[in-house]
Amino acid sequence: MLTIERLSKTYKTGDTALSEVSLTVPKGQIMGLIGPSGAGKSTLIRCINRLVQPTAGRILLSDMDIVSLGKSDLRRQRRRIGMIFQEYALVERLTVMENVLSGRLGYVPFWRSFLRKYPASDIQRAYQLLDRVGLMEHADKRADALSGGQRQRVGIARALAQDPELLLVDEPTASLDPKTSRQIMRLLTEICVERGLPAIVNIHDVPLAQQFMQRIVGLRAGRVVFDGSPDLLTEDALTTIYGEEDWNAMRNGDTEQAEAEADARDRLAALVR
What we know:
This protein is α/β, with parallel strands linked by helices. The protein has 2 domains: 2-246, Rossmann fold (3-Layer(aba) Sandwich); 247-273. The chain is built from 10 helices and 10 strands. It has helices at 41-48, 71-78, 96-101, 110-115, 120-132, 148-161, 178-195, 206-212, 235-242, 247-272; strands at residues 2-10, 16-25, 30-34, 56-61, 64-65, 81-84, 166-170, 199-202, 215-220, 223-228. Helix 6 (148-161) runs parallel beside helix 7.
């Protein structure tokens, strides 16, 4: 279980990104984090794994306070936190298999990782994960030969290779088309349910969050302004999170834009053929 207590982050410029955020994410819960740009969503995720150092507050993962850890202890604790990035963060020149195995770097001696001599059990596990995310036949391909959706699947498999107790996902669909976005979100949620794995997903697509998340937390100006189930995310709640907007028109506009993008891709594919 993850518990966040009165977490705050103020930068040297004086800008406050987070202000006394308190949340509990129980085992197996998939929580969507939504809010306008600058609301503090990415900062919150990065504070949890200490890519950003919080100014105040506590972050407890199974009763271990991550905020108070020194460098060596922090390296060990980060193995328990899987991270999936918006821009995939793969090593492009390495193969899919090698990228997945990099999730084991925190568990193997330096010489093994340097020589890429991973234990047979890690290699077997990596093949199982590639099979689960639907990439078994791409194991020996270089990462830069993959599509965006395939790269995100590699990122998911790499995070799972850590055997994490918590999954942090930072805008996993921001660079993907609508169909691939749904496929990735469906895969993420299925895996979390299978493993009883808690996850925090920073997601800008509100309809997608409503479709796949078990719980939604809305941030605005670094504060929690909504915390509830997707069906409670009414127009009033959305206005509290994002400000005044014609939400029906926006939803219709999103649908029309998605259809236009799909049509444009089909026309381009026809021209290429």
